[in-house]
Every structure is written in C-alpha cells, then in structure tokens.
Design brief:
- The longest helix has about 60 residues.
- The protein has one domain.
- Helix content is about 85%, strand content about 0%.
- The protein is built from 3 helices and no strands.
- The two termini are about 30 Å apart.
- By secondary structure, the protein is mainly alpha-helical.
C-alpha cells in the first residue's frame, strides 16, 4: 500500500495570494503608523521652535528697553556713550548666546526616529519569516 500524503486545504497559489495580500496590508499599516508618528514628532518640534521664537521676540523687546536704560545710566555716571554701548552690547550678546544654546539643547533631546514603527517593522519581518517556513 502506498502512503497517501494529506492534501492541504488550500493550494500553494492561494497561500501565496493570501501572503501577498496580508503583506500589502501590513506595509500599508506600517506606512500609516510611520506617518502618524512623524506627524506627532514634527508637531512637538514645531511647538519647541514656536516657544523659541515667541520667547525670543518678547525677550528682545524687553531687552531693548533695558539696554537703552543701562547705556543711559552708564553715560550719566561718566562713561563715554560709545563705551557704554559697547559694554552693554557684549553682555547682551553673551546672554543671547546662552539662550540660543538652551533652545538648541532642547531640540537635540527630541528623538525624531519613529521608534514604534521601527519596532513593528522588526516584528513584521519576524512574522514574514515565520510565514515562509
């Protein structure tokens, strides 16, 4: 007697068709996830940049008034106008540099890698590898 092999419920073509459809669906879902994650991260970065811009504008307006007052004060106590303006300008530029560095540091801490998408892509690759076996 010959041994009969069990016939699969579905043909190889049907299995490959299912795998192709599932893979296509999976890729579409991953693209959507990546878009959503990048949109969220871009929104957070945009918010940080907005805070930098608004904070800079407000600080600049207040700073101009303070700079004028300090220059006038120094000039009234006997410092030449040009020297008073130069001293205050150097101090203001130093403070501005520190503020810019603080904003850039905050931006560098923002992780722009779509980590959730990367993780699910790894899981998907593992799933696809299991499907081929």
């Amino acid at each position: 007697m010959q041994q009969q092999q069990a016939k699969p419920d579905r043909s190889l073509g049907e299995l490959f068709g299912d795998l192709t459809r599932e893979t296509t669906t999976l890729v579409r879902q991953e693209v959507e996830l990546a878009k959503a994650e990048m949109t969220q991260k871009a929104s957070a970065v945009g918010k940080d940049i907005g805070f930098l811009a608004i904070g800079g504008a407000v600080a600049y307006a207040g700073l101009l008034a303070l700079v004028a007052a300090i220059i006038i004060l120094l000039a009234t106590i006997g410092v030449p106008w040009w020297l008073a303006a130069a001293l205050v300008g150097v101090i203001v530029a130093g403070i501005g540099y520190l503020l810019i560095q603080q904003g850039l540091t905050a931006l560098r801490r923002t992780n722009l890698v779509p980590s959730q998408t990367v993780q699910t892509l790894k899981e998907d690759a593992e799933w696809m590898k299991d499907q081929r076996q």
